[in-house]
Design a protein that fits this description.
The protein is mainly alpha-helical. Helix content is 85%, strand content 0%. The protein folds into two domains: 191 residues, MFS general substrate transporter like domains (Growth Hormone, Chain: A); 183 residues, MFS general substrate transporter like domains (Growth Hormone, Chain: A), CATH 1.20.1250. The longest helix has 30 residues.
Length: 385
C-alpha cells in the first residue's frame, strides 16, 4: 500500500510540475498589454518575451535531455526548477525591459531542463504496462495550463498586478524542487555509462522519428493560434463565446491525452498513434467545411482536440518504448520538434489567412496531419523498429 501511494505521489508531482512550467508560458499572453504599458514599449515588442522563452526552450531541450540520460533525471529537474525560480523572481523585479527579456531567456532554458526530464523519469518509473498512461497523465498537467493560463493571468493581473504571478510561480518552483527530490529515484547506473550525446546514427533515428511530432504540432497549433481570430471574424463570436470555445477545446485535449495513454497500453501502440493522426486530419478537414455552422463548431472543436492529443500522448509512449536507454534525449528532441511545428504552423497559418481565407487554414492543417501519418507509415515500414 505504501508503494501505491508513493507511485500516486510521483504522478501528482509530475503533473503539478508540468502545470507550473506550462502556466509560465501560457500566462504571459494576457499580460502583454500591462507589461508594454509599464515599460513604455509596443505590445509587439513585449511579445518578444514569448519568443525568447520558446526559442531558448527549443534550443536547450535536446542538450539537457541528453545530459539527463548521463547525469540523472532528478538532478536535472532540481537544478532546472531552481533556475526557473530565479528567472521568475528576476521577471517580477526587472527594472528594464532588457532585464525582463534576459529573465525569460533563463526561464526558457530552465523549463527545457525540467520538462524533458519529467517526461523521461515518468517513463522510467512507470509500472510495467502503464508507461503510456503515466506519460499521458503528466502531459495533461501541461495541457491544463494551456487553457487555464490565460484566465489565470487576466484575473490575477487585475487583482494583484502582473509581477505577483511570477513571484507565485517562483515560490511554487522551489517547493516543487524539494518535492521532486523526495519522490523520484536516482538515475540508474547502467544509463550513466552511456555517453551524454548519442552517436550520429542513433541521433539520426531519433530525429527522423520526432519529425512526426513536428507535423502533428503544425496541424494542431497552426489552427489553434488563429482560432480566436476565426471565431470572431467568421462566426461573429463574442469574447465570452470564444473563451467558452477554448474551454471546449481544452477539455477535449485533456480527455484525448488521458485516453491516448490508456489506449497505447491496451492496444497496438503504433496503430493508436497512426489512426489518431488520420482522425485528426479528417476532423480538421470537417472544420474547414463546417466552421461557419454554429451547430457543429463545438463538437468539431472537441473531436479535433481529442484526436490530436490521443495522437500526441500515444506517440510519446511509442518513443518511450523505442528508446528506453535514451529517453531523456528522445523526449527532449520531441519537445523541440513540437516547437518547430508550432512555428511552421503559425507562419503558414498567417500566410494562408492573408492570401486566401480563414476557412482554408483547417484544410492546410489537415494536410500537415496527413503528412505526419504518411511519414509515420514510412518509419514503421523501413525504420529499425
Amino acid at each position: 500500500m505504501k508503494n501505491v501511494w508513493h507511485k500516486r505521489l510521483q504522478l501528482l508531482t509530475g503533473w503539478i510540475t508540468l502545470f507550473i512550467i506550462g502556466t509560465d508560458l501560457f500566462v504571459v499572453s494576457p499580460l502583454l498589454p500591462s507589461i508594454a504599458e509599464q515599460y513604455q514599449i509596443t505590445p509587439s515588442k513585449a511579445g518578444w518575451m514569448v519568443t525568447a522563452f520558446s526559442l531558448m526552450y527549443a534550443l536547450g531541450a535536446p542538450w539537457f535531455g541528453a545530459f539527463s540520460d548521463k547525469w540523472g533525471r532528478r538532478k536535472m529537474i532540481t537544478y532546472g526548477l531552481i533556475g526557473f525560480m530565479i528567472a521568475n523572481v528576476i521577471t517580477g523585479l526587472a527594472p528594464t525591459f532588457s532585464v525582463l527579456l534576459g529573465s525569460r531567456i533563463l526561464a526558457g532554458l530552465a523549463a527545457s531542463m525540467v520538462t524533458s526530464s519529467v517526461f523521461a523519469v515518468t517513463g522510467d518509473s512507470a509500472p510495467s504496462g502503464k508507461g503510456g498512461r503515466w506519460l499521458a497523465i503528466v502531459t495533461s498537467g501541461f495541457l491544463t495550463a494551456l487553457w487555464t493560463g490565460a484566465p489565470i493571468g487576466t484575473v490575477s493581473a487585475q487583482i494583484f498586478g502582473w509581477q505577483y504571478i511570477f513571484y507565485t510561480l517562483a515560490i511554487a518552483a522551489i517547493a516543487l524542487a524539494i518535492l521532486n527530490v523526495r519522490v523520484w529515484p536516482s538515475q540508474k547506473s547502467d544509463l550513466q555509462k552511456k555517453p551524454a550525446v548519442p552517436k550520429m546514427g542513433e541521433l539520426g533515428r531519433i530525429l527522423l522519428d520526432v519529425a512526426v511530432t513536428m507535423f502533428w504540432a503544425g496541424a494542431v497549433y497552426g489552427l489553434y493560434t488563429f482560432l480566436g481570430t476565426g471565431l470572431k471574424s467568421v462566426n461573429d463570436f463574442s469574447s465570452d463565446l470564444v473563451a467558452a470555445s477554448l474551454i471546449v477545446y481544452g477539455i477535449g485535449a485533456i480527455a484525448g491525452s488521458l485516453s491516448g495513454g490508456r489506449l497505447a497500453d491496451l492496444w497496438n501502440i503504433q496503430a493508436v498513434s497512426l489512426f489518431s493522426l488520420i482522425a485528426l486530419a479528417v476532423a480538421l478537414a470537417l472544420i474547414g467545411v463546417l466552421f461557419s455552422t454554429w451547430l457543429w463548431i463545438w463538437p468539431l472543436l472537441a473531436v479535433w482536440s481529442f484526436a490530436g492529443y490521443v495522437s500526441f500522448s500515444s506517440y510519446q509512449a511509442r518513443l518511450a518504448q523505442k528508446y528506453p536507454d535514451r529517453l531523456g534525449t528522445a523526449m527532449a528532441w520531441n519537445q523541440t520538434a513540437m516547437y518547430a511545428g508550432i512555428t511552421l504552423g503559425s507562419v503558414f497559418g498567417g500566410w494562408i489567412i492573408k492570401i486566401w481565407s480563414f476557412q482554408a487554414l483547417p484544410l492546410l492543417c489537415g494536410a500537415f496531419a496527413l503528412l505526419g501519418a504518411l511519414w509515420y507509415l514510412v518509419r514503421m515500414k523501413w525504420a529499425d523498429n
